[in-house]
Every structure is written in structure tokens, then in C-alpha cells.
Specification:
alpha+beta
């Protein structure tokens, strides 16, 4: 994988998403529908992640407790990605509730 959503993946980025077990689909979703906080930072909320789970693109078991996905991008290069987890993040009862 060299590109995600027309952004070049650095070696550091590929290493981090493998270590953190972040699905490449979530990365592209973050770029496409995430909130752009600054010129180099995108944030994907648990509501958007919930929609991806309900549509069958990713599995809930991989992301139980997730609150947000944050992506750092500089000049069309993906630098790093990290997630924030909490007790009130995604869980089975939250996903079953309708949006």
C-alpha cells in the first residue's frame, strides 16, 4: 500500500497503523468525511465510525471503546494516525441505537 485516498503513505505511517491495528478504510474515511481541525489534522468522530460499522465496512470488535481517530497529514503525505479510547466510546449497545 503506497497511497490512501491520493495521499502518499510514509514508512513511519505504515508502521504505526500496523502497530495500532487501524484499518486503511478508516484512514480514507477520515480524510473524506473527517473534520479538518487545522491544515494538517483530520479527526473522525465515533458517529462516523458507527456508520461504517453499520454499513459493514469494519468490525465493531476491532474498535470497541473508540472515541476518535486523528490523522496527521502534511503536503499529501500521511504522517501518523492515532485513536482515542474511553469507557463511553463505541460499544454494542451504542451501535444498536439508531443514529
Amino acid at each position: 500500500m503506497k497511497r490512501i485516498y491520493q495521499h502518499h503513505c510514509t514508512k513511519h505511517f505504515l508502521q504505526k497503523i500496523l502497530e495500532r491495528r487501524i484499518d486503511p478504510y478508516l484512514i480514507s474515511l477520515c480524510i473524506a468525511k473527517g473534520k479538518k481541525i487545522s491544515t494538517s489534522k483530520y479527526v473522525l468522530s465515533k458517529i462516523e465510525i458507527k456508520k461504517a460499522i453499520l454499513e459493514g465496512y469494519i468490525e465493531l470488535e476491532d474498535y470497541i471503546g473508540i472515541e476518535t481517530l486523528t490523522l496527521i497529514v502534511k503536503e499529501n503525505r500521511l504522517i501518523t494516525a492515532f485513536t482515542r479510547f474511553s469507557d463511553i466510546g463505541l460499544n454494542k449497545s451504542y451501535v444498536k441505537a439508531r443514529i
